[in-house]
Amino acid sequence: MNINYELYKVFYEVVINGSISKASESMYISQPAVTQSIKNLEEKLGGKLLIRTKKGIVLTEEGKILFNYIKKGVENFKNGENAFLNYLNLDSGSIRIGASTTITRNIVMPYLEKFHLKYPKVDIKITNDLTSNLVTALRNGNLDLLVVNLPMEESKDLKIIPIHEVHDIFFGNKEYYNKTKGSIKLEDLFNYPLITQKEPSNTRLFLNKYLKKQQYFY
Questions:
Q1: pLDDT at res. 218
Q2: CB–CB of 37/6 below 8 Å?
Q3: Pick from 24, 96, 155, 166: most CB atoms within 10 A?
Q4: What is the distance between the alpha carbons of residues 9 and 14, in angstroms, rounded to a whole number?
Q5: Cis amide bond preceding 151, omega within 30
Q6: Model-level pTM greater than 0.70?
Q7: Cα–Cα distances in angstroms (integers) from residue 43 to residues 2, 46, 47, 64, 74, in the given order
Q8: Crossing angle of the two packed helices 5-17 and 31-45, in degrees rounded to 10
Q9: How far apart are CA 216 and CA 211, in angstroms?
Q10: In contact, 147 and 107? CB cutoff 8 Å
Q11: Whose CA is closest to 13, among 22, 1, 5, 4?
């Protein structure tokens, strides 16, 4: 049986409002249109749903049974619409962000603080991990967006938007600063003990590519 949802919705409004005239006002449609919708629903179902009296409408026994099911369905639709609008208006919901610890602290947090002040009801969840693991989580639907170091491999299923320019630098203690006078040539860099992020982090991959481009290998 294929019955238009609108007929059930009219039936629901008539019962909730207690009369066809009040249902007509709440739905902004004419009384004859409401009456016709109820008639069409009764014909399709093959039974009487309502009895009109001077005091309003009365449900038949069959109508009572149907209404108990219709009520749950229509209200679920309304609750779904409200929840959807709340998400659109950022009145509720959650945002799942993936980022490295460094990016979270230095790039993401200042923006999240402003966002939280503006939309306090939105739950913010942050996952810190390697970029490769975060990309997998994004593709699996476990994250909504990533804030990671570039470059990244081009992928048709991901939209990559540069948002901030950063500069990677080496730093050391005063002993090495005094030895280098605050600057050092690239070829002399390997005369010192270096600590870098492990592969396959994006920062390490960027360093490797840069050194290879300069014909140095690390």
A1: 53
A2: yes
A3: 24
A4: 9
A5: yes
A6: no
A7: 13, 5, 7, 17, 21
A8: 120
A9: 5
A10: yes
A11: 22
Task: Report the candidate in 166, 136, 133, 135 with the shortest Cα–Cα distance to residue 149.
Answer: 166
Q: How many CB atoms lie within 10 A of CB 31?
A: 14
Nearest to 42 by CA among 88, 67, 7: 7
Q: How far apart are CA 71 and CA 16, in angstroms?
A: 9
For residues 108 and 46, the answer to whether their CB atoms sit within 8 Å is no
Here the tokens at position 217 are 């290998």
Whole-angstrom Cα distance, residue 216 to residue 187? 8
Q: Sign (positive/negative) of CA torsion 16, 20, 22, 24?
A: positive
Q: What is the pLDDT of residues 125-182, one digit of tens each?
A: 999 888 888 888 998 888 989 998 777 666 778 888 888 887 777 777 777 777 777 6
Q: Is 37 exposed, middle or buried (0-12, 13-18, 19+ CB in 10 A)?
A: buried
Q: What angle do CA 19, 22, 28 make, to 5 degrees?
A: 135
Whole-number Å distance between alpha carbons of 41 and 50: 11
Q: Which residues contact 183 (CB under 8 A, 6 or more apart)?
A: none
β-bridge partners, 207: none
Give the burial class of 71: count Cβ atoms within 10 A of its Cβ; 0-12 exposed, 13-18 middle, 19 or more buried. Answer: middle
Task: Record the tokens describing residue 100, joined without a space.
Answer: 């490295």
